[in-house]
Design a protein that fits this description.
Bound molecules: zinc ion
Largest sheet: 6 strands, mixed
Order of helices and strands: HHEHEHEEHEHEHH
Distance between the termini: 63 Å
CATH class of the largest domain: Alpha Beta
Oligomer: single chain
Shape: globular
Strand order of the largest sheet: 2-1-3-6-4-5
Number of domains: 2
Number of strands: 6
CATH superfamily of the largest domain: Zn-dependent exopeptidases
Radius of gyration: 25 Å
């Protein structure tokens, strides 16, 4: 009697499990729900800021190449090179002017994991082309204290929380560019740049050589070269999260 009851109970449990999984398979609730939450945890939000725009052309190089246009093409290309688990937003998606505070606030309002501002350099000497990645540097205002994680920072100085990780991000991107499309030393340095100082996440500003340098301008006139630079920057971003 006890054995037969146990068999009936076991049979009922098995039948219920089968019904549950059949329903789950039909509605997709169990499997897709689990996948969705696991995927959501891995999504990285990246805000890319193509410098200048509209009346503000940035650097103009030989042949009429303009920084604002090259940086927009580069920003779009980086978005295309990052893996699908990276959600990319651009601060501007066309040729129009936006101010510096707006650029940073896009990153803060999107809750971005990273903010990357894109610029080219310019030099009085057409013989020079320098690649530099800037991060913010510690400020000496009185309330800044790295040992006090809860120290209140002014809103426009939130980057002070992230300087070390921003420097690490700059190093990762610089390593990729040096071995890749830049093919030369990429300097990493701290500088008080307004577009970075209010960003509440790791943030860097990349200067991709000087457009006033004719060989560099010629390279950036070619979309394949811009795509190669974008690939290196995207790889550096992935390295930052993996290393
Ligand atoms: Zn610029």
């Amino acid at each position: 009697m006890a054995d037969s009851s146990r068999r009936i109970l076991h049979g009922l449990q098995t039948a219920l499990l089968v019904v549950f999984f059949l329903l789950a398979a039909v509605t997709g609730t169990v499997s897709s729900g689990m996948n969705r939450s696991a995927f959501a945890g891995d999504v990285k939000v990246i805000v890319i800021d193509p410098g200048h725009g509209g009346h503000d052309h940035g650097v103009t190089g030989p042949g009429g190449i303009v920084e604002k246009q090259v940086m927009l093409t580069l920003a779009r290309s980086i978005g295309g090179k990052l893996p699908p688990s990276f959600k990319v937003h651009l601060t501007r998606t066309g040729d129009y002017h936006i101010d510096i505070k707006y650029r940073t606030s896009v990153a803060n309002n999107r809750g971005a994991d990273l903010f990357v501002s894109l610029h080219a350099g310019g030099s009085h000497s057409s013989a020079v082309s320098v690649w530099t990645i800037y991060h913010d540097r510690p400020k000496a205002f009185p309330i800044y204290d790295q040992k006090r994680a809860q120290a209140p920072f002014p809103w426009d100085q939130l980057q002070q929380r992230h300087i070390q990780s921003s420097a690490r991000l700059a190093e990762r991107i610089g390593e990729r560019l040096e071995k890749g499309a830049a093919g030369q030393a990429v300097d990493v340095m701290g500088a008080p740049l307004p577009v970075l100082s209010g960003a509440n996440m790791p943030a860097v500003l990349i200067e991709t050589g000087c457009l006033t340098h004719p060989p560099t301008a010629r390279k950036f006139a070619n979309t394949d070269y811009i795509n190669a630079v974008a690939g290196d920057i995207a790889s550096g971003i992935v390295d930052f999260f993996e290393k």
